[in-house]
Amino acid sequence: MGTVSRAAEETNRRMLRARDAMDRDYARPLDVPALARIAHVSEAHFARTFRATFGETPHRYLQRRRVERAMFLLRETDRSVTDICFDVGFGSPGTFSRTFRDIVGRSPRAYRKEAVAASVPTCFTMSWTRPSG
């Protein structure tokens, strides 16, 4: 019994090593072969085990990490959507927009507009409507 749990522990460690690499290096081109090498397992084993461990494919996990980073950049910077697309590791603006909309529920531009509108402090907007005197 001890060897089975040791083997499971080792597998979890390997999957976490690959997931940590995605968290850290999300902007790099990380595909299943590269991630399997990081985890020191075969590609098929990696793809199957990652999904079983984390509940989504490695590709989907990486896309979600990239979109999360893009959301931050859209909120906190005035960089163009295209620049942000490439900064977070997407290969094309079309793929970025499609993936972003799929995960967030709206386009990057719509997300930015809402985030900017939501971040304007109430006291700032109220000062324009307050009567002077």
Strand content: under 5%
Order of helices and strands: HHHHHHHH
The best one-word shape is elongated
Count of distinct strands: 0
CATH topology-level name of the largest domain: Arc Repressor Mutant, subunit A
Instruction: Tell me about the largest β-sheet.
Output: none
Distance between the termini: 81 Å
Low-confidence runs = 125-130
Short description:
It is built from 8 helices and no strands. It has 133 residues and is an all-alpha fold.
Characterize the structure shown.
- With 133 residues, the chain is an all-alpha fold.
- The chain folds into two domains: 1-55; 64-133, Homeodomain-like (Arc Repressor Mutant, subunit A).
- The protein has helices at 2-24, 32-39, 43-54, 58-76, 81-87, 93-104, 108-119, 122-129.
- Helix 1 crosses helix 2 (32-39).
- The longest helix has 23 residues, at 2-24.
- It is elongated, with a radius of gyration of 20 Å.
- The termini are far apart.
- Residues 125-130 have low confidence and may be disordered.
